[in-house]
Task: inverse folding
């Protein structure tokens, strides 16, 4: 149930970021935050790499480090922060931001005024630029009939303060707690990728408003972390995409997309083997976790080998 509270109850802005061997990047993010005089904030760093002791050097009065104990993935790590904040303040504004993102110099944070003016927005995405000032994200659309998720520039040439959309990027996502009757959480089945889409889609289906704005913006260095691990990146993005197709499309669309995916994997095995292996492993894992037939992975692997040969 959506509850809308109109009075200004915001005292502290909470930021959440997830560390995975990203101390240098998070230091850049911290240095880009405005001083305490300009903004009363707390930053929660969820540490998904417990052996990365360098992150502990960033702890201070307004920066809290929560040790996840292991690599929980993005959504589950954010959930640790969301739950902690919810126990402190059920009316909080929570800004989830990537560790490889940061704010431009002299950024303005009229965030309290924005949500006082627009209390109906529950989940707000911001425009995101690359370091070269190109638009990286400005709104998301989902096309159920084809299973296509697209980043579409909905806000750059718009005079409105915000535009409603289907989903916003978890790279820079603001949640207005006071509209929720319980703590909003990401689905832990998503380890990495598409968890932001699922988060937005699941809550819009419950009546919550999702929108994007250009009033607030961040700078993002795309894939500066995930590009270190190509095969894992492809594995998680493919696996999460299959979950998303299964949930939000139909059997026909899912089957077509799966056949297309396997076809590309077979082609890439000769051109880009890391990408091919990541896709194939994702199909195996998805089949194992979700198929009622429970066909052994060795059987699937033999099938794919036959296709290649």
Result:
């Amino acid at each position: 149930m959506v509850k809308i509270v109109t009075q200004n109850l915001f005292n502290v802005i909470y930021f959440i970021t997830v560390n995975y061997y990203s101390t240098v990047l998070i230091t850049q993010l911290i240095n880009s935050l405005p001083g305490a005089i300009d903004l009363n904030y707390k930053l929660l760093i969820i540490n998904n790499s417990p052996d990365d002791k360098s992150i502990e050097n960033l702890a201070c009065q307004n920066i809290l480090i929560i040790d996840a104990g292991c690599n929980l993935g993005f959504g589950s790590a954010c959930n640790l922060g969301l739950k902690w904040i919810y126990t402190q303040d059920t009316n909080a504004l929570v800004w989830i931001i990537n560790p490889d993102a940061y704010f431009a110099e002299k950024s303005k944070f009229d965030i309290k005024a924005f949500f006082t003016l627009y209390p109906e927005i529950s989940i707000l995405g911001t425009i995101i630029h690359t370091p070269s000032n190109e638009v990286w994200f400005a709104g998301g659309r989902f096309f159920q009939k084809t299973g296509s998720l697209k980043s579409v520039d909905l806000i750059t040439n718009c005079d409105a303060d915000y535009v409603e959309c289907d989903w916003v990027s978890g790279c820079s996502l603001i949640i207005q707690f006071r509209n929720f009757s319980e703590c909003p959480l990401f689905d832990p089945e998503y380890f990495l990728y598409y968890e932001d889409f699922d988060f937005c889609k699941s809550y819009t289906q419950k009546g919550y408003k999702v929108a994007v704005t250009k009033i607030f913006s961040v700078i993002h260095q795309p894939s500066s972390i995930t590009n270190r691990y190509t095969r894992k990146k492809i594995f998680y993005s493919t696996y999460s995409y299959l979950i998303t197709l299964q949930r939000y499309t139909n059997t026909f669309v899912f089957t077509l997309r799966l056949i297309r995916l396997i076809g590309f994997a077979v082609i890439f095995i000769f051109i880009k083997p890391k990408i091919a292996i990541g896709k194939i492993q994702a199909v195996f894992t998805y089949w194992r976790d979700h198929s009622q037939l429970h066909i052994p992975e060795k059987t699937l692997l033999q099938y794919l080998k036959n296709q290649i040969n």
In short: The chain is about 35% helix and 20% strand.
